[in-house]
Amino acid sequence: MSNKEVKAALKSARDAIRNKEYKEALKHCKAVLKQDKNNYNAWVFIGLAAAELEQPDQAKGAYKKAIELEPNQLLAWQGLANLYEKSSQTDVKGDLADVYQKLLQLYESGDKQKWCDVCNKLVELYHQEKKYLEVAETWQKLIQMKQEEGAEKAELHQLWKKMIHLLKDATENQDNKTEQLLLTAFEHAVNSADTVPGEDHQNLYKDFIQCLSKFPHETARLEKACNDMMALYPTMTYPLEVLCLHFVQSGTLSEEALQCFSRLLEMDASSCPGIICFGIKCLQEKKYKEAVKSLTEGLQKTSQCPAAWHYLAEAQMKIHKHRDAVLSCNQALEALGSPEGPSLHWKNRSLQLKAEALIKIADADAAEEAIKALEQIVDASSDPVVLALRGQAYLNKGLMDQASKISQELLLSHPDLAESHALEGFIHYSQKNYEQAERSFLSAIERKAETAEYHQYLGLTYWFMSDETKKDKGKALAQFLKAAKLDSYLGSVFRCLGNYYRDIAGDKSRARGCYKKAFELDRTDEESGTAAVDLSMELGDMDTALSILNEVTEKASTGTAKWAWLHRGLYYLRTGQPSQAVADLQAALRADPKDSNCWESLGEAYLSRGSYSTALKSFRKASELNPGLVYSIYRAAAVEQILGKYENAIATYQQILKETEDYVPALKGLGECYLMLARSALDNYLDRK
């Protein structure tokens, strides 16, 4: 076949393809290849025809043969691209990307429009595959090409915005290079906008700042972006809110940060980040209750701020709301997720604070949870304060050997640390080794004199120490007063002062004041609440006693605050208000159904109300729970006597007298029953028989 015949055969093949006669085209191409097996066009036409005849493998082979013959010719690459684009197989996407890359090389020096079309296709392919770095790099080449062609500012702006859109899903788990390309795109888009200031530009700036806030290491860039936006949009609070939360999260509250807080609150007093920042400022200024109030309010709407939850827990610890502090630490840890970098610092701090709060709760379950929290702290073994907390947790759990081992290790490795000596003091105190405890607490105070807890425990050590200190509690009082001065929110130390003024000084009024203060600080402190009520009653101040009881019972849920219900019930009983007494004593029994004394008091209330049957049941229940309650047994017999059940009453009185011969009320009741039986016999004329 001559060259002329080859050209004619190729022309026939082209015409056949145009007329969709693909098998005919294949015949012409095969005839050409018999003569010239390296004919580029013949292989390309075979690829085209085979593709249309749905023979993808043959088409792919033909195109690859053509490419092998002429690697820098377009036709075969274009055909291969079309073949892969139509394929439903997912494994060809990698090959298609390689084909697009080659086409970009081939078009680069020629047809710019086709280069851009292929570039768009390649970017779309990478985006589907979530290869965000390749998306960014390829799209940046497209923008570069447009810049070299002298594209308009508006067109470039749209291209930068498209790049942002393509990469917006990549912020969660991308490499540093992709991140930098995204931020560069934002900077170009923000700076190339036409209408500044304007709504679109404003939203773009907000997205830029939001993106920056996700990258902890881009603090300088974030601060610059916020300040630039504030300069352009001085009435907008958004950049200021982000900047304030950034300062909160950074943990360093500089003068600049405090100025931002004040400026934000001036602009919008209801701004949640502003309220959070105000709360942190209150915490710094030791206004702990205001701090708790503001941080709680701010976090109701901006809950995803781990640092703010941590600061709230700190404030709650300062006012000894330990259970609330545990919940706040849990919120901080939940908001942190699986942290790295600066966030890991917050995780460690929150875990440590949670452990401290659980240790203060001081029961075995809380101690177990504290140990688990401490185990999660990174590099905990190298931190002596964390080790001391672990020792306290073991002590609370009753694991004395482990606590003692940690204490000994700390005293050897960190003899100048107050916590080392305090832990030793807590161990000695729990074992009633008061002289050793005194030495340990004095050593702890020497190293950290401003810790109220150390002074309180030293005071308690003096309180229980020896016969001499039992007579003279002056040393204990001095330490309690010091602790109360250092920490005016420490309710338990005011209870200790109340005990001193009541039991030692005999000053009921001052004792009542201390107990009242202790109870106001800690509503769960039943001992202080009870003592405040009892002393108020002794001092004839029923209004104060009732105000305490009313406040507790109003807030109490079913089955709680037994002591308050019981005290108020007894007050109503004494003041001749039996119906109210019944209601309160029933509420007390819901909290503790096995309290025999409470059943006895309820019986008295029913009796005063004239409900004899229920009174009888209550007295019987009391004597069932505590057979030693002679008074309840006697009152049951007295009610039976009132109801005219003289034989039953006599049997009960005789039972009492069998145990206690000289129990006068029973003797009197027994006599009265015999007399009533005699009268009944006379009324029935039994004397005539």
TrEMBL record:
Residues 3-39 form a coiled coil. InterPro entries: Ski3/TTC37, TPR-like_helical_dom_sf, TPR_rpt. TPR repeats lie at residues 40-73, 562-595, 596-629. One of its GO terms (biological process) is RNA catabolic process. One of its GO terms (cellular component) is Ski complex. Keywords: Coiled coil, Repeat, TPR repeat. Gene3D superfamilies: Tetratricopeptide repeat domain. This is TTC37 protein. The lineage of its organism: Eukaryota, Metazoa, Chordata, Craniata, Vertebrata. The gene is Ttc37.
